[in-house]
Design brief:
The structure holds two protein chains of two kinds.
Chain A: H1 3-19, H2 22-49, H3 57-70, H4 73-85, H5 89-95, H6 99-129, H7 137-161, H8 165-182, H9 194-199, H10 204-217, H11 224-244
Helix pairs in contact in A: 1-6, 2-3, 2-6, 3-6, 3-8, 3-10, 4-6, 4-7, 4-8, 6-7, 7-8, 7-10, 7-11, 10-11
Chain B: E1 2-11, E2 14-24, E3 29-33, H1 40-48, E4 55-60, E5 63-65, E6 76-79, H2 91-101, H3 106-119, H4 135-147, E7 153-157, H5 165-180, E8 184-188, H6 192-197, E9 202-207, E10 210-215, H7 217-224, E11 229-234, E12 248-251, E13 254-258, H8 263-274, E14 281-287, H9 291-298, H10 300-303, E15 308-309
Parallel strand pairs in B: 3-8, 3-9, 6-7, 7-8
Antiparallel strand pairs in B: 1-2, 1-4, 4-5, 9-10, 11-13, 11-14, 12-13, 12-15
Helix pairs in contact in B: 2-3, 2-4, 7-9
The chains are: A mainly alpha, B alpha/beta.
């Protein structure tokens, strides 16, 4: 693996992103707009849990970060399918040293998008919603980094498993809503049915929410377990990508 | 520069390549000809490192690859058959990307972009997005992108597809210049006249995964081009004529007769045998042996389907 080709691929993806900034901007702006609608419900749920002085921001900000973070999964896939659609995929393969260069290069921009989304939602959204981090900002960033890494590795796995961009987008979007719902990112976790409480620990979004919650509320909880579990899920996704992603496979770019 | 030895590739029960040997020296253009499905694109893909052969070796610039190894990227520039550019970014950014991939930076990269843009008549278009280029401009950019890092071996798969005559001639001139500068070029095409226009020293005719004919054009024409012949075309179905041995009915209204002496003498002799059928005669062609006749003879399995020995 060499830095030169990875940097070149990331730069080209940034140039392409620059030509159409709207989708990424929407993924950052829309959750901000949804926060005021959902905050009262989260405030009520936190108050019922006994969290003193809860504003609802403690749940609504990470909830939107988790929900809309999942939409970035399809952006990872798009980076690959776009090359197939433009017939540039084979050129890229011939021009770079290794498969690892291409894969890592293609992960850079989605990872930067995840970072940008995290920063905007927690800094701007947090300020707007009155988020007070009682625990640790460092822990919050660590959870965000682990979740971002999980998103891009899952994007790779989705790319490996889906033959068309439509399949990948459908899987990513439906998965986003399902996983966000199960984690209590869309509605307060306490309001979920009992059976959902049994399933939730099996999904990565639950651990992302748990990690954010501990980092924001502080207290007895720690973020180590959520981070380790998120990295474990990332490992599973990376393993699926490693065994199923064949650069020579034909993909239908825009079908 | 490029040597392939005993390359084999199968797709299920289909032998795409069956023992292909190919040699290309620096500064040489080797034209790869063959009917559809002959294995040209498979061969180009294996040389480029996109496909691995089932067996056999590819040696590029002294580095040997095979089923277990991958072609080193900076040795090869590939222009695939379909136009492959980034439509949403500018011509400059398309070129810049492939320069960066090859390790070019800053002033060296800027110099190469300017030089390549000049060579391919893209200077005025550098700030135009790929999606706003005409077909010919996009094809020029498509080819320009592979020469940016000056690879010693170029693989051009149908590089003039979809170009008008002027753009095609311009591109052929550029390709000739690249070869004169020492670049080894594998040029896959369906257009025989381009091969003659490029003054390609070596032609390889691929049929059903094998190199059925290989060598300089004059030798191929002498070996496979056959004798000169005379072709008669009628305005209706061919009349019954007393024709010499070896005459072929090449379609319902045309016959081709080998010229035993000079084509003109054979034509004169044939015209005398027409009698009443002469009024239906539409065209007389004197056909000299050519790359086309050699190609048709080598790929005879296909041409036999439309030609019947009389």
């Amino acid at each position: 693996m060499t830095v030169g080709p990875i940097t070149a691929i990331a730069r080209q993806d940034l140039r392409i992103l620059r030509t159409d900034f709207v989708p990424v901007t929407l993924l950052i702006i829309l959750p901000l707009l949804l926060m005021p609608f959902l905050r009262p419900a989260f405030k009520l749920a936190l108050t019922l849990e006994g969290v003193q002085g809860a504003t609802g921001a403690e749940q609504v900000v990470p909830g939107m970060a988790v929900t809309f973070g999942f939409f970035l999964v399809s952006n990872v896939s798009l980076g690959f399918y776009r090359e197939h659609g433009w017939n540039t995929w084979d050129r890229l393969r011939v021009s770079t040293g290794s498969a690892a260069d291409i894969v890592v290069g293609k992960m850079v921009v989605p990872l930067l998008q995840a970072v940008a989304q995290f920063v905007v939602l927690f800094v701007l959204g947090g300020a707007w919603m009155g988020l007070h981090v009682r625990g640790s900002w460092l822990a919050l960033c660590a959870v965000g980094a682990a979740f971002g890494f999980y998103l891009v590795t899952t994007g790779l796995a989705v790319t490996a498993l889906c033959r068309t961009s439509m399949q990948a987008t459908a899987v990513a979007n439906i998965g986003a809503l399902l996983l966000a719902g199960l984690a209590g990112a869309l509605v307060p976790y306490k309001l979920l049915p009992a059976w959902a409480h049994y399933i939730s620990p099996a999904v990565p979004s639950y651990w992302a929410m748990e990690g954010y919650r501990h980092a924001i509320l502080g207290g007895s909880g720690n973020v180590t377990t959520p981070i380790v579990v998120l990295l474990g899920f990332s490992g599973v996704s990376a393993f699926i990508a490693a065994i199923r992603l064949r650069l020579g496979d034909s993909k239908a770019g825009f079908a | 520069m490029l040597t392939t030895r005993d390359l084999h590739k199968r797709y299920g029960s289909i032998h795409a390549l069956s023992g292909v040997d190919l040699d290309v020296r620096p500064g040489e253009i080797v034209a790869l000809l063959g009917p559809n499905g002959a294995g040209k694109t498979t061969l180009v893909s294996i040389i480029a490192g996109l496909l691995t052969p089932d067996s056999g070796t590819v040696e590029i610039n002294g580095i040997t690859t095979g089923p277990q190894l991958r072609t080193l990227p900076r040795q090869v520039g590939l222009a695939p058959q379909e136009i492959a550019i980034y439509p949403t970014v500018s011509v400059r950014d398309n070129l810049r990307f492939f320069g960066e991939l090859a390790g070019l930076r800053r002033s060296r990269l800027r110099q190469r972009i300017a030089a390549v843009a000049l060579t391919f008549s893209l200077t005025e278009l550098l700030d135009r997005k790929g999606q706003h280029l005409s077909g010919g401009e996009a094809r020029r950019l498509h080819t320009a992108m592979i020469v940016l890092h000056s690879p010693p071996l170029l693989l051009l798969d149908e590089p003039t597809a979809g170009l008008d005559v002027e753009a095609r001639n311009e591109l052929l001139m550029v390709i000739k210049t690249l070869a004169e500068d020492g670049c080894a070029i594998v040029y896959s095409t369906h257009y025989l006249y381009e091969v003659e226009q490029l003054e390609v020293p070596t032609v390889a005719i691929l049929v059903e995964g094998r190199i059925a004919a290989y060598g300089p054009i004059p030798r191929l024409v002498a070996t496979h081009g056959g004798a000169a012949s005379v072709e008669l075309r009628f305005s209706r179905a061919c009349p019954q004529l007393d024709l010499p041995e070896g005459a072929l009915q090449i379609s319902g209204d045309a016959i081709r007769v080998p010229a035993t002496h000079s084509p003109a003498a054979t034509a004169a002799s044939l015209l005398q045998t027409l009698d009443g059928a002469g009024s239906a005669l539409r065209e007389v062609r004197l056909i000299e042996p050519s790359l086309e006749s050699a190609f048709l003879a080598v790929t005879a399995d296909r041409s036999d389907a439309t030609a019947t020995l009389l």
